[in-house]
Amino acid sequence: MIDALTITNFKSFSSAEIPLGAYTLLSGLNSSGKSTVLQALALLRQAEQAGLLSHEHGNAEYAETGAVGGFPLNGELVELGTGQDILHEDHVTEQGRDPEIGFALRASTSVPYEWRARYGREDDLLPLTVCRPLPHERPALHDEQRVTLFNPGFQYLRADRINPAVTYPQSHEMAVRRGFLGTRGEYTIDYLRHYQDETVPSTVLHHPDASPRLLDQVEAWMGEICPGVKIAATAIDRTDLVRLGFEFTRPRQLTTNARRPTNVGFGLTYVLPVVVACLTARPGAMILLENPEAHVHPQGQSAMARLTCAAASAGAQVIVETHSDHILNGVRLTVKRQQLAPDDVRLHYFQRNADGIVDIVSPAIGPDGMLSQWPPGFFDEWDRSLDQLLD
Predict the structure, then answer these.
(1) pLDDT at res. 82
(2) Cα dihedral angle (188, 193, 194, 198), rounded to 10 degrees?
(3) Is the pTM of this model over 0.85?
(4) Is 62 exposed, middle or buried, given 0-12, 13-18 or 19+ CB atoms closer than 10 A?
(5) Measuring CA to CA, how many Å separate 13 from each of 56, 118, 246, 319, 350?
(6) Cβ contact 157:277 at 8 Å
(7) Where are the domains of the chain?
């Protein structure tokens, strides 16, 4: 598991170290740096998938050989533009050197990893200048006990997920072979169509009202948002598309007619990729989730907190960006119920000062779910509004 991420000269941060746990919750005002943390991790994953963090690339001893290696800013996971779009405006630079953008990962069971790349204003591939440890010192990147970011089972679901639609893309490569749901969750329907009869192996993820079958578990957790919902995912003959349909059970009636996603609102379609990602979480994998609460009412948000915590309990490393106090309180209740250890949880509140510097405040959570501190702006809007109402 990754214990900490260090960011240098990247977007919101000139320099920052963010401790990570089995479950990490990122909160704060808009444009305060939360998404920067997820994008940094996604960028490293994107570089590793492209073979640009491999042993033979980016070490100082190879810097003059012209070996291709670096940070590809535009790809499957993130589209960040060019160097000028990601360099922190008040970047730190060693005297006499061009600015560099860097990341480091620290894991208790492995040597630290560090990558630095040379800044290029118009470049969308920033060449590596530093890659540590050196090739002969480096253990395997792929190991569930070491660097979760590079293990199979990685999922990154951005805030701009799939909208309700009649059809969605079908891809054997993405959904079936790689098991990747897509950054917008666009391959979720095809994944569910193919794997719906598989068993959810970890019992901590099981909803008590359903069998271990994946589709039954998905419907049970989706039922926390819309009771009685049934899901149908089918391929459309002679096309590269799959169809999603929702049905709803009623007392003394098995089902109703299938309804188009466009006729049942945003919430069900928006949260479906989150549910599938958590239920299929692999031990030693990393799951990045932006705003799992989007378009979901408070009861459903609390259910999403329980499910994301269960994914961490099942062995995945889960990092959640959220604006929801229901997500936070759901995490606190999970700790209080001893379903997740306090030491496994990291809470970070990002706030931008008047001078533009981002400060990170990290309240600790106790075994009773209570927090060590409540910095101003940290999920306190309801209390402030209540004070005004009672004034």
Answers:
(1) 96
(2) 90
(3) yes
(4) middle
(5) 29, 17, 43, 18, 11
(6) yes
(7) 1-151+322-391, 162-282
Name the one residue in this structure whose structure tokens are 């260090």. 6
Residue 318 contacts residue 287 (beta carbons within 8 Å) = yes
What's the burial of 309, exposed, middle or buried (CB within 10 Å: 0-12/13-18/19+)?
buried
Q: Single out the residue of 55, 10, 24 nearest to residue 287, CA to CA.
A: 24
Which residue is it, tokens 């991790």? Answer: 41
DSSP 128: E
- The per-residue DSSP string of 79-93 comes to B--SHHHHB-TT---
Rg (CA), the chain: 22
Element (H, E) at 118: strand 113-118
Amino acid code (one letter) for 279: L
Q: Where are the alpha helices (DSSP H) in the chain?
A: 34-49, 83-86, 188-195, 214-222, 266-279, 298-313, 325-336, 381-390
* Tokens standing for residue 301: 């948000």
Helix and strand counts by DSSP (H, E) for the chain: 8, 15
> CB under 8 Å, gap of 24 or more: what pairs does 243-247 form?
243/166, 243/167, 243/168, 243/189, 244/165, 244/166, 244/167, 244/168, 244/189, 244/269
For residue 181, the tally of other CB atoms under 10 A from its CB is 27
Write out pLDDT tens, residues 14-33: 999 999 999 999 999 888 88
